[in-house]
Amino acid sequence: MNLDELNEMAEGVRAADTGIAHEVRVCMAASCQSSGAGPVLDGLREAAPSTGCRVKGVGCMGLCSAGPLVAVAPMDGGEPVLYRDVKAEDAQAIACSIGTAPVERLRLPNDLPFFSRQQKIVLENSGVIDPNSFKGYIAVGGYSAMVQALTEMTPAEVLAEVTTSGLRGRGGGGYPTGLKWSTVAKMPAEQKFVICNADEGDPGAFMDRAILESDPHRVIEGMAIAAYAVGATRGYVYVRAEYPLAVERLKTAIRKAKRSGFLGAHICDTQFSFEVEVRLGAGAFVCGEETALMASIEGLRGQPRPRPPYPAEAGLWGHPTLINNVETFANIAPILLRGGEWFAGIGTERSKGTKVFALAGTIRNTGLIEVPMGTRLRDIIEVIGGGIPDGRAFKAVQTGGPSGGCLPAAHLDIPVDYDSLRELGTIMGSGGMIVMDETSSMVDVARYFMEFCMTESCGKCIPCRAGTQQMHDILKTIAKGRGTRADLALLEELCEVVQATSLCGLGQTAPNPVLSTLRHFRVEYEDKLAATSA
Amino acid sequence: MPLPAPQPQVRVVTLKIDGQDVSAREDETIIEVARENRVPIPSLCYLEGLSVWGACRLCVVEIAGTDRLLAACSTRVTEGMQVITNSERLQRYRRTIVELLFAERNHVCSVCVSNGHCELQTLAQRCGVDHVKVPYRHARYEVDSSHDLFRLDHNRCVLCTRCVRVCDEIEGAHTWDVMGRGTDCRVITDLARPWGDSGSCTSCGKCVQVCPTGALVRHGTSVGEMTKDLKFLPYLSRRRHGQ
Ligand SMILES: Cc1cc2nc3c(=O)[nH]c(=O)nc-3n(C[C@H](O)[C@H](O)[C@H](O)COP(=O)(O)O)c2cc1C
Ligand code: SF4
Ligand code: SF4
Description:
The structure holds two protein chains of two kinds.
Chain A: H1 3-15, E1 22-27, H2 30-34, H3 37-47, E2 53-58, E3 70-74, E4 81-83, H4 91-97, E5 107-108, H5 113-116, H6 134-139, H7 144-152, H8 155-165, H9 177-186, E6 193-198, H10 207-214, H11 216-230, E7 234-240, H12 244-259, E8 275-281, H13 290-297, E9 321-325, H14 326-330, H15 332-338, H16 340-344, E10 354-361, E11 367-372, H17 377-384, E12 394-399, E13 405-408, H18 418-423, E14 432-437, H19 442-456, H20 462-479, H21 485-501, H22 505-509, H23 512-520, H24 522-530
Parallel strand pairs in A: 1-2, 6-7, 6-9, 7-8, 10-14
Antiparallel strand pairs in A: 1-3, 3-4, 4-5, 10-11, 12-13, 12-14
Helix pairs in contact in A: 3-4, 7-11, 7-15, 8-9, 8-11, 10-12, 19-20, 20-21, 23-24
Chain B: E1 12-17, E2 20-25, H1 30-36, E3 60-63, E4 70-71, E5 82-84, H2 88-104, H3 119-126, E6 143-144, E7 150-153, H4 162-171, E8 176-179, E9 186-189, H5 206-210, E10 216-218, H6 232-240
The structure holds flavin mononucleotide and iron/sulfur cluster (2 copies).
One iron/sulfur cluster (SF4) is lined by residues 286, 304, 457-461, 464-465, 502-504, 506-507 of chain A.
């Protein structure tokens, strides 16, 4: 199959829709489903006019706090009408409104900054296509990047495009993706693997889940392109078992892609073959760490091992292995279609493209957003997020989960990119963003994340295993107002040792929430001490 | 741990360890070269003849050109590498790590059968740990005395996994494993059954000999009587790996 034939196929799918004037899209991602999107979809299916209209379940539309969300979109490309907090009883009213005046009482204004200030690349199909439909993905130009790569580009050209784009890994580390790919590509080996890391264990993060639930084919397409570029023939998607919907949709997508010849042996009648399997993680945060993840796939205890050697050199069963995050792979198809230069034009000098964030905490609009790198933190929180509810004041924003840190109001005007965040003692991480108001205690926040690291430590190395427990004990004592100056000094010393000597990223970054709150909110610690130790 | 397969034609490189020029085969690790040249690097989980584990973090060293500390047991030498094994900072970190170990479980040396022949004690002395400033945890741990010949005392275990590795890699029985997460980790025999009921244990005693502390000991030893003998290991390891 070449590009023309694929376009023809897409044209065919779209042509079958000519009778349809409106599409009713009901968000069927996990969050909306849990607030009752299922009955809404059923209700709309029943109530909608039988001709000229199609009702379908789609992926995440982003504004999870207002779910269940429904969009009525004219097929001529006009602005969709968005509805919030839809209940099954509202189905009739919405169905009757199609083509006439919208139901004002449920309506979300289209010019809401939450939507208008975003820029969607990774999430462009999210909330638009039916994630369970292979044809739906083809209709919006799906798999054309893969077919283009396989039929018109050499692996080296694909690598060059990804390198030019400046894409950096979205799994937390921010390692340049092009460099990682070319390292694996240069390894001389018979067998290589590609792994998609969908373990997403950070508390508060659900970007990868939403991508898999909303647009699974795009991740598979990214993996296939990567496999072609580095010379791999087998791939694994490692998803945590707590994401049953994502797993189901991913498996459906793999099955359908395979049946249509877009995965498996001789993809699209080319010489390239690529098999993908899904592996489930059993809920250990540390299994998101690449070497532990690979041990887990191999059937061993999910425990990290020292690096080097990096997976690119000796990964799965000792073979060179490319491992990237879900969002990283989701960026690949648009980069090939629109070019690395286009992608590099978005974002900042050293952080290119967009980033998906999961907005959570005490903020009006919680949900999933995608903004260009370099967007000011203030714009994300005050404009897109709608600020803090109930007239309370902003206190801090936590990024990077248990490996990250908290930023105070004084730094709200920084651009969100890898380097600015790192300079201030936090990290981009995978995209969790938790907003806290004046009522939160920073010592409690640090204690919470330390407890998380302590219980998630795999126990292999001493500094992390015993150090996180000691640090947690000290934080607990300080939070209760019983800490002394000596406790605080020991806490700081343990932070340094655990950070410097731990074996894997979990231990190396576990002190970050403490260090960053000590840096920006030290008074809070001191105030708690003052009560007992004068 | 899967290090990349040794290349058929290894080159010899030169590097500096603590300012001393040394030569090494490219496929050797820093700890091997350092010990060959009588530069002492403390370690606990590392044992010549067993696979590299990289967990005790006592052997971390500074390498010029990177801010990260790297474990000497799992890092290969390279041409021109400059290694520092004993800076003030490294000494401080090692002291804290040893303290964390002492505080984690219950090490009461005065009543321990390994007193005087214990690698953890020796380490503490060599690292200058004369007191422990992190609070002792005083958690309760079990003792498994069900085996005819040996006893397992979790109070003294440092989770170095030498027993797991020697049993799997040298004896070939794989009686031992680790279960749990974080500080709940413990070594187990078979599927967490009493050691005495183990169907896979051959009672060879290799685990007891490689255990650095008083966690695995022979029955019938009293305070300070348990000595261990590691001489069998390099020999058996070479035989195992066909050298
Ligand atoms: C404790 C720990 C947990 C991690 N969890 C994840 C995760 O859930 N998802 C992920 O993509 N990367 C995770 N990572 C990072 C991975 O090790 C790896 O760097 C990443 O998957 C590489 O992909 P990227 O280059 O596309 O970012 C984790 C790292 C550590 C140390
Ligand atoms: S740092 Fe923590 S999670 Fe990582 S290997 Fe060590 S004990 Fe395990
Ligand atoms: S194992 Fe070693 S350190 Fe622990 S009590 Fe016995 S002699 Fe002391």
